[in-house]
Amino acid sequence: MKKIIFFLATLLLVSACSKKVENTYKMNQEKTTILAKESKEIFNNQDLLNRMLGQQTVSYFVDSITKEIYTLENLESVEQEVNNRIAEYKETLGDSFQTQLQSIGFASEEQFKDSIASRIMSSKLTEEFIKSNKEEYFNNQHPVQLQYVIFPDLETASASLNVIREGISLKDSIAVNPNLIAIDVVVTEQNNNLPVELKSFALTTSEKTTSEIIEVAGANDIKVYYIAQIIENDPNQFVDEAVAEIAKNINQAEVLKYYFKKHNVVVYEQNLYDQLSQAFPGVFE
Amino acid sequence: MEMMKKYGFPALIACVLLIFVAYYAIDSAKKQKTSQHTIATKEENGDSILYSVNGKNYTASTFYEEAKNQFGNLATIIELQKQVASNLKTTNEMEQIATSYVAQARQNANQNSILSELRRFGYQDIKELKDLIIFQLKINELNTNYLNDHRDDLVKKFVEENNSSFVSHILIKVADVKQDETGKFVLTPTTEEKEKLETVLKELESKEFSEVAATYSEDMGSARQQGSLGYVDNSVLNSFVPQFKDAVLQLKDGEVSQVVETQFGYHIIKIDAKDVENLITNHAFVQQFYEKSGISVLTPVLEKAKELNIEIKDSDIQKYVDGLVNGGAN
After folding, report:
1. pLDDT given at position B125
2. Among A50, A51, B12, B88, fewest CB within 10 Å belongs to which?
3. pLDDT tens-digit profile of A53-66?
């Protein structure tokens, strides 16, 4: 009996002592000194590793995992697109390019390139995810291709509508007025940039038809007048545009959850796990 | 007695066992609060695996090599500060502030946010929050002491060049304001406006400026701060109307102005701090000094580290720190 109790007590003592190191991660590298006091090591590379893991690393790891997944998905290289964007930034910012990079926290152009590449990859993966689940998203979001014109007064709007009723398109009906432009958009259930009245017309009209004049009260109660035309209400006819619009408002946790499952992403680092769970609720469910 | 001999020692061991079990039960309950889910760790050739994608492992060594530039510099600076702070005395005042802060944070703040902040500074447990606060208070004290040591050279020069001060005011609005041909504002107050000004002036004879400002000032933003406009320097002064700016520049530390007329109405201005010794006691000034003087906020800690023989041995990190200090960045 005594022996059993001794054994259990020792076991518990040993596990209690080992508790201190449960959140310690290690490298198979030789120890190097980072900080020393009176020439004695007080902080080494193993300590620094664990301290680095305690920083807000979630974006870093999401980028890193995104790159792995992107490779596994065999999607087209983003290099050209990255170079184009860098060239655009350089052209716009001129000599201040490097200073601007540093001011937004990038130590080098290479780091900035990496960040852009991750963003492009992430957006392409999101679009691929929506395409893979397009029936579900098209059914829930009802994407509609819409063209509309904003008229400053009722008379001009009425004149256009009369011409449209004679069989002229919305775009051609304003050809005589250079101040007016026809705007093409994809409207979805989650699109919040359009007036409610216009969105309601787009989402409740099943025919490819032209609206009546839609009166909208803008800022300072100044009224403007819309005429809208549904160009296409079958999203399978404009898949890329519909997917791009849905991607703008998608819950990133859903996207990550899908790819984490698909490519068996397993996290073994506690802080990263906690940060991912907080930033993307449900990602590990 | 015979029973005691026979079962006494095993009973003692059983008590110890129970204490451990109880400790574990309490500890794991605490853990539930700080981390929603404890995950398993894994290694590959003595290297911790941080994550894997489709069986491909991303190890601690890879992370260290790839991300040292991004996270290692700050993490080392924090450790350096902690090492320096551990050599500084913890005062009773620091203890009291930290205890009160911890009590407030436990009630109001999100436990996960506290825990992730603690991890940034190398603490693992929520009960170490007090240690983190004391550490930060020590660093603040170190930064203030540096200013005290350089009061007559660096700080004096900074204050003179920037016209630093802390300013409060009371505003009594006047609706009818016209500008004469010389550009001067002519105020025609109503009886009510005139009476309010007289009340304020009377009140100031017996009450604190801050109390009167909070009660009567019609500049609602500053009235909520007992009339305080906070830290004022050249960049702020230039946004003031000329009459107000001139008054601030002319008044001395602690002085209250006569009534100053501007296009907004009547102002009574007080200089809360202008002399170097008073400015230094204000944490907002200390922050402004390190942000704008070109002296890095790391300078005091590096000087103290040198005194304590604490050195950065990693050449890349040393280079980064040199860049911050020499560039005057924070």
Report:
1. 86
2. B12
3. 988 899 999 999 99
- Residue B67 and residue A57: Cβ atoms within 8 Å? yes
Is the Cβ pair B51, A277 closer than 8 Å? no
pTM: 0.76
Kindly give, in sequence order, each residue whose CB lies less than 8 Å from that of residue B131, ignoring residues fewer than 6 positions away: B123
Evaluate if residue A227 carries a pLDDT over 60.
yes
Looking only at the bridges linking them, the beta strands covering A144-151 and A182-187 are: antiparallel
Over chain B (330 residues), the average pLDDT of each successive run of 10 is 55 52 44 58 93 96 92 95 96 96 85 85 90 96 96 96 97 93 89 96 96 96 96 95 95 96 95 96 94 94 97 95 76
Tell me the backbone φ, ψ of residue B48, rounded to 5 degrees. -65, 140
Which 253-312 residues of chain B touch chain A by CB within 8 A? Answer: 308-312
Cα–chain center distance at A139? 21
As a whole number of angstroms, the distance between CA B196 and CA A142 comes to 62
CA nearest to B294, candidates B146, B139, B154: B154
Residues 6 or more apart whose CB falls under 8 angstroms from that of A230 comprise A144, A145, A146, A202, A205, A207, A208, A209, A210
The two tokens of residue A155 are: 């008379």
Return the sign of the alpha-carbon dihedral for residues A115, A117, A123, A126: negative
Report which secondary-structure segment, H or E, holds A43: strand A40-44
Partnered with residue B168 across adjacent β-strands are B228, B270
B80 touching chain A per CB within 8 A: yes
**DSSP code, position B195:** H
Residue A150: count of CB within 10 angstroms of its CB: 19
DSSP-assigned beta bridge partners for residue A225: A151, A215
| Cβ–Cβ < 8 Å for A203, A187 | yes
Across the range A133-139, mean pLDDT stands at 94
The C-alpha angle B282, B285, B290, rounded to 5 degrees, equals: 130
Q: How far apart are CA A225 and CA A197, in angstroms?
A: 11
In the numeric block, which tokens belong to residue B119? 């991890």
Nearest residue in A to B310, CA atom: A37
What φ, ψ does residue A209 adopt, rounded to 5°?
Answer: -135, 175
Residue B270 DSSP code: E
Quickly list DSSP for B138-158. HHHHHHHHHHHHTIIIIIHHH
For CA atoms B95, B131, B128, B291, give the dihedral sign.
positive
Q: Are the CB atoms for A258 and A264 separated by under 8 Å? A: no
Contact by Cβ (8 Å): A5, B8: no
Instruction: Judge: B53–A267 Cβ closer than 8 Å, yes or no.
Output: no
A contacts of B308 (beta carbons < 8 Å): 37
> DSSP state, A189?
T
Q: Report the alpha-carbon distance of residue B64 to residue A16 in Å, rounded.
A: 29
Which one of B23, B40, B79 has the shortest CB-CB distance to A35? B79
